[in-house]
Structures are given as C-alpha cells and as structure tokens.
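Why run this: before we spend reagent on co-expression, it is cheaper to look at a predicted model of the complex and decide which construct boundaries make sense. The entries below are exactly what would go into the expression plan.
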Amino acid sequence: MNTDPCQIQLTPDGKLKHFLTTEGLSKELLTEILDTADSFISTQERDVKKVPLLRGKTVVNLFFENSTRTRSTFELAAKRLSADILNLDISKSATAKGETLMDTLWNLEAMYSDMFVVRHADSGAAHFIASQVTPNVAIINAGDGRHAHPTQAMLDMLTIRRHKGQIEGKVVAIVGDILHSRVARSQIHALKTLGAAEVRVVGPATLLPRDIEALGAKAYYDFNLALRDCDVIIMLRLQKERMQNALLPSESEFYKLYGLSTEKLALAKPDAIVMHPGPINRGVEIESAVADGPQSVILNQVSNGIAVRMAVMAMAMSGQQSMQQQAQQDSQEEDPV
Amino acid sequence: MKYLHIRNARLLDPQQGLDDVLDLYVAEGQIRAIGQKPAGGTIEETLDAQGQWLLPGLVDLSTYLNEPGYLQKGSIQTETRAAASAGFSHVCAQPLTKPVADSPAVIQLIQEKAATAGYARVLPLGALTQGLDGDQLANMVSLRNAGCRALSNARQPVKDSYVLRRLMEYAATYDILLFLSADDRALSASGVMHEGPTATRLGLAGIPETAETIALAQLLLLIEQTGVRAHISQISCARSLEMLADARARGLRVTADVALANLVFTAREVSGFDSRFHVQPPLRGEKDRQALLTAVNRGELAICSNHQPHEISAKKAPFADAAAGMSMYDCFMPLLLELVRKGELHLPAAISALCHQPAAVLGLEHGLVQGHRFSATLIDPQAVGGKILSRGSNLPLDHSELAGRVEATFVDGRMVYRRQPG
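The model came back. Tokens follow.
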C-alpha cells in the first residue's frame, strides 16, 4: 500500500498501465492521450465505428456507486474497441450482502477479466484496487470519492484543445463545489501540466478545500473578479445535499453569487467557452440561455468523452500487454530449456 | 537473601539524577542496593549487561489489548508479551472490548488473564460510560473498587457538555481519575486524516485542529469547574499545548500525553492512501510534530504507545474504510531511539515521559531507587532485529534496520520477558 498513487499507473518504461489520476503524469503522456482520442473521433464519424484494439478482451464495469452516464460512455467506448463488456452494479448486490471489497475483487479476478473500470464512493478506491489485484488487470478510475475522475478531466482537456487550439497559456476558472469535486482535482493537475496560464477555483470558503493553492490553483471568492480574462469557464454541478449540510444557505443565493448568467459571461473574454461535466442544474449553476448558447460546448464534451475513454482503455491495455511480453521474455532468458 | 545481580549496565533514571555504570542487586521484588553488594546473602543469578541500558520499566497510558472480544486483533497474552518486549512493565488497557470493560466482572476477567499470562502488568481502564455510549455514567465507584486506577471512554464521544459535566462531578466526588480525549465529533465526524494539503490533494475528508482545540477548551473549563482529577489522552496539535500551558499557569493540575506515532510521523505519510497511517488522533503537520517534541523535551507531556493491533483484513480497504490504529509495540523502542539519535528527543526527557510522568499520573511507585519495587527494562541501544510478537499486522514501517532492542523486562523483581537469541 505504500506505492505512490502517480507512479503505480505506469510501466517501468513510463507507459500507462492503469489510469488512476492525472496527477504526476507527464505533459507528453497527457498529450498522447489527447492525440489518441483525437484519432478516435474521426473513427466515430464513420459508418462502421468499431476498431479491433481490444478484441477478445473482457472489460468489467465495476460501479460501486450509481452513474448511468459515465457507465454507458465506458460501455460504448469498450464496445467500439471490440471488447466484451460486463456491467456489474455492485451498489445493489455484493457489498449490500456484506461482502468486502477484497472478496468481490477475488471473485472477479477468477473470471479472468483484463480490465476493471471502477467507480467508488471512497477516495483512493481505484488506487487500492490497482495495488491489490493480479498484475495483469488494468484499472481505469471512473471516479473515486472526492479524489479523482481522470477520464472526465481529460475529455475536458480535449474539448478545450479542440475549441481553443491549445491549453498552454489559457486562463481557466473552475466554479462551484470544489470541496467535493473529484473532477476539479483532476482538472487542476491536468491543466497545470498542460501549461494553462492560470487555474482559478471559485466559490465560497465552505466549498473551497483548505490549502487548495498547494495544488497550484488560485482561490477566488469573487466570481466577477475570477471571470476577468478567462478563456474557459468550467461550472461544476451543485448537489442538493450541500444545502442541508450548512455549506450554503440556498440555491438562489448561490446562483446570485456564482451562477453563470449572460451578464456574468460578458465579463470573461468574448470568445470564452463554457463547460459543465453534467448533469446540469439549470438556474442553479448556470442560466439556460448560457447552457444552450453559442459559447457553450457542453454537448461536445459528451461526445469527446467516448473518444477519451477509448484512448485510455487502448493505451492501458497496450501497456499491460507490453509488460506481459517483457515478463515472458525475461522468464525465457532466465530459463533456457 | 538471594540476589539477582545486574552488572555493567548503564543505569538511567533522570528523576534520581542517575546516569552511571553501576551494579544493581534485587531480592524479593525490591531493589536492595545500587553500587555495592549488600552485606550477607548470596548471588543467585548474575546478568552481564555490558553495553546495555537499564531504565525504569516503561508505563503505557494507552493500549488496546482487544480481549475480551476481538481476538483476531490480539489477546491479553500476545499483546502484554509484545508490550514487555517493548520495555513496558505496566500498561493501561483501554476499555474498548466486547463486552466493554464497564463492569467489575470484565475488569476481573482482564486482571486474571493478565496475571496468568504473566508479562507486562495490566492496569485496566474502566469505561467512563456504560457500553462506552457516552450517555449513561458507568458504575464508577464499583470499577474503582475492582481495581481501576482510572476511567476512560477510549476516544469514544461523550454525548454533550451536560453529560461531560455530570460525569466529571460524579468522579470528583469520589476522587476518581479520568483519562479524557479532546475530540469534537461535530467537527471531526466525517474526517479520516488531518485537514491540510495532503487531505485536499487526496480528496480525503479532513479533521481540523479545532476538532481538538475546541473540545480541549471545553474539557479544561469543566475540569476547572468540577475539580476532577484528569489526564488528557493523545494530544495532536501545537495549539493544544499552548492551551494546556495556559491552564497550568492558572493553577490547574492537568497532565497530558501524546502517542509516539504523532512524534514520529506527519500527515504526509498518508500521501499514497497508505492505510497504515490511518490513526486517531490523526497525524498532523510538521509544526505540530515539532511542538509536541518540544513539549516532551520540556517535561510537559508524557508519551503513550496507543498500540492498536489489527488483523490484515481490517486495514485492507480504501483509506476511509480501513480501521484506525497502529500496531506499535514491535517497533516502539527502535522508533523512540531513532528520535533520540536524530537529536529530536533528549534521552532523559524520553525516559521521564515514559516512566516517571505516567507513573506519577497513576500513582505508581517507580524508579531505580533502593527499596523500590524493581520494575525495569534492559535495552541494547545498538542491536537491530527484534521479533514481531504482537498479533497486529499493522506496523507503520519495516523497523528491522533501526537500532534499539529490548533485552529483558522486569516487573516487581521478576523477569517477565527475555529476548530469545536468534
């Protein structure tokens, strides 16, 4: 368990073998993910959308927490790579019967799967699973607690790059509930590595985690100030529970202070784009006219999501295979019978 | 009279101003002489302790023996043996057992099992509230009469300040000593580690310092009001030390301790979601660690092991789901002496924090003094490679390279632990 969460996802020669977090990955590797995803976008526009990269492989969607949207984009991505896919909704089955996470994992390993796509409510769950399963299973983090949601962050990077040409030099504001957001954390790491000029996190002190600036982001309480010179505005979803937990007085007061209205949007650069990981609360984080307006790229994010997930699945599987080949070669050299 | 003769050991007892290579003679459980052999009698056994240190036995103000009820984690037999192998002659066992140690029957059971095991002496802490529920007062006087030197709620929350006030008043009526921990559950409830940059980076819910300091302020004010004899268990924050110093300056007689883990590690250890470092109270920042070390060096803070052994599966889970606690006995002495070697902890202060201060809190006769009961530990400060004796698998690190090994431990003149060669 004493493995660095960033290093555990890489093969000895620096290729991706799991995808757990954007933190600690090099600019080259993140760019490779984006380039690979770009190439898949063109295959998605064809009549026959399947490519055979994961043919014969079994991917298990291991969702300990419900998420129809993320799960279906992973399912679609796996199918377009020609993998066999098994959807396990663990939130309703095994753990509810008292089975521990370790028991569940041992059972799944016995099914000879090649890849687990993991969504779990605990921070560090994907990292934990990666450190416990047999070495040949690739783990893709589909969201762990408040820690990371790296595929969502990378699809956002892809969206920014496709609309703005590059991420280098851009000013990006991430707005709303940063405290509970795994997406925000993964975005901050990716944006910093890819050379964004400034990453601003915007919200009241109750929703900004302590020492967030240690991650390289700049904290803003004033949305108007934070919007100045912004190239990209990322609005986060606000959960209703936050109102019951003494974090916010009301949705209406939050909207007044941090909701993205047409007037607020005018404070950013004229060509600024508006993003949201979804699902949107219209009138809570964002005005409908902005969400559906010309600067919104929210729907593009969804289609880019499939390409990014295809990219990391293909790359992690290839990293696993090169490691297995290396291991086979090594054992042949040691044992020349 | 038949003597046990320990020769060539460096006798270390800062309370007595003792730091010298001297002979020591024990008979009938007592130290009969330091230096010259008393007239008459014969030497039954001689221990040559060349290059070793002889300290008063360490007294642990907090340990979890897990019996009755949690034998998969440890038993009185395994954990008191591990304690003796770490140099502890006396250990205060937290009442977190199943059933909870809230009745004389459970206390008696623990005492009997401990006596049968015959390793470190167990001083059971009675539960402060029934079933540790934090609400209904336990039968404090019965527990005291059953042999509990102090009562504790084993870091479980007390319902509110009303219950806290009443249980202190009741304890004060009968001069019962309380071990209290400072933890405001409303602030710490969902937290699993120190609130700071590491928690933010990992997305783990944080425990702010105020969870400790607010609760400590409440404890200190109520201790002052009720006049109860109280000891604060496992302080973790620098700010708490200032508050304790203020309280003492106003004349309040309150003592406190820190778990060794908080002197050795900081929250940064959690960086890789390492569940071994999931502990209560949480490991804090470097400033806190430095302030705690300073307080120990000044003689203001005792050290406890807060030993909490767990089975492998209890820690094999994502960080938040993994059980809190660290198995300390098997690495206690090397970790302690490493702090001394690095100059972070002064040896006399460390001995005081582990021997005299806890003995004074509990009212135990202690120290390398002629006429005192002989409870002591013999340490080889250079040797490496102690055995793993605790049932707990949750050691914080591989200590096999760190020097500092207990060779023998004595309780009331009897050698209860002697390292087996090999």
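The longest strand of chain B covers residues 42-48. The mean pLDDT of chain B is 96. Bring this page to Monday's planning discussion.
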